[in-house]
Amino acid sequence: MEEVKRIILNKLVRSRTWGGKHLPLNLLLKGLPTIFRASQQGKKTIDKAIKELEQEQLIILSEKRTGKGYDTHSSLNPRRSAEIQALRTCPCGRRSC
Fold first, then answer.
1. What is the C-alpha separation between 66 and 56, in angstroms, rounded?
2. Tell me: the pLDDT tens digits for 65-83?
3. Which of 3, 66, 92, 96 is deepest in the core (most CB within 10 A)?
């Protein structure tokens, strides 16, 4: 699950979605490997990782109005930028593996 969290945080940081800028959740999930998206267990892992990131207040989830209704959008919490940068690094010490 830590790998999924790292992938989600990396995707949000690379797209610079801090604070007021947001990214639709479905576009965020498209960036995950198909290993996680294709299986039922992988989907549960993704949902659990997103829920934990929100509970730790590292990401902010909000409902935004779109042309076809409402969608869930995500952004990074700018008050937790130091923690987010620390979680983005791999256990081996590099930025990404």
1. 27
2. 888 888 899 999 999 999 9
3. 3
pTM of the shown model = 0.84
Q: Packing angle between helix 2-14 and helix 81-88, nearest 10 degrees? A: 120
The answer to whether the beta carbons of residues 9 and 87 sit under 8 Å apart is: yes
d(CA 86, CA 97): 15
Q: What does the angle CA 4 – CA 49 – CA 40 come to, to the nearest 5 degrees?
A: 80
The amino acid occupying position 81 is S
Q: Give residue 13's identity as a one-letter amino acid code.
A: V
| β strands within 1-97, DSSP E | 23-24, 59-66, 69-76
SS3 call for 58: coil
